[in-house]
Amino acid sequence: MARTVRSGTQTRSGPEARKPGGIMTGAPVPVLAWPPDEDRVEAIFERLSRIMPEPKTELTFQDPFTLVVAVALSAQATDVAVNKATEKLFAVADTPAKILALGEEGLVPYIASIGLYRNKARNVIALSRIILDQHSGVTPLNRTDLQALPGVGRKTASVVLNELGIEPAIAVDTHVFRVSHRLGLANAATADKVEDQLHRIVPEAFLPKAHHWLILHGRYSCTARKPDCPGCVISDLCPSRGLMAGNGEAVQPSSRVRTASAKSKPRSAASDK
């Protein structure tokens, strides 16, 4: 399937443009030439779609408001930790009005096990007030209004809009950043620029779930310190597998599609870690 890379960010040419470093992730991140081969990109996402046909967030939520709160709480915290906290919180306060009734001091005990809980408590109270006062208690589901909420930046808004099927957004967290660089899908130095590059090279049919696939691949296979290259279903498509193996050399990946490993099991998708 022929595709055209959408214009925008300036590309780098030639071999590896910068030595691997800990850009954003603190883990080995090669910076390779861009844009990547179209057939290889399509093969990567086709293969990931086979082992994870219906990826979803691992955060527990009941509606748009609880999703916004859960994603806001998940910054620099695991989904597991957030779910433990929100299980008790949402049992008593799952609407903007109920959160405001708790107040900041009443909210803190429910989320004290999560990092940065004081700041997050202030943000959740503030965003609940805005939703109640400015949106009649209905959580806004457009990017502009979402990003205007305290504690809801571009990444959080992207997670919400993607999970609810409103926008094929790609939220670039540390997993997406790391995996995109290792696979040669992006080579930019900031999350926003990586997001732009991904939107320009990911085939349109795969865009709605690309966010989840990259996060899951980074969480369970292409981990920060010890990527499971031998067990990776796209290792033959990865230009960084030599670097990850420790021989210090990038390799020329294959663009041929192979059948996903029978041992690979579909997973639910992660949100932000």
3D structure, described in words:
The protein is mainly alpha-helical and 273 residues long. It folds into 2 domains: 18-56 and 173-245, Helix-hairpin-Helix base-excision DNA repair enzymes (C-terminal) (Endonuclease Iii, domain 2, Orthogonal Bundle); 64-163, Hypothetical protein, domain 2 (Endonuclease III, domain 1), CATH 1.10.340. It is 46% helix and 3% strand. The chain is built from 11 helices and 2 strands, in the order E-E-H-H-H-H-H-H-H-H-H-H-H. A hairpin with a 7-residue loop joins strand 1 (18-21) and strand 2. Helix 2 crosses helix 7 (154-163), helix 3 packs across helix 4 (96-111) and helix 4 packs antiparallel against helix 5. The radius of gyration is 20 Å and the shape is elongated.
Descriptive keywords:
elongated; 2 strands; mainly alpha; Endonuclease III, domain 1; Endonuclease Iii, domain 2; two-stranded antiparallel ribbon; 273 residues
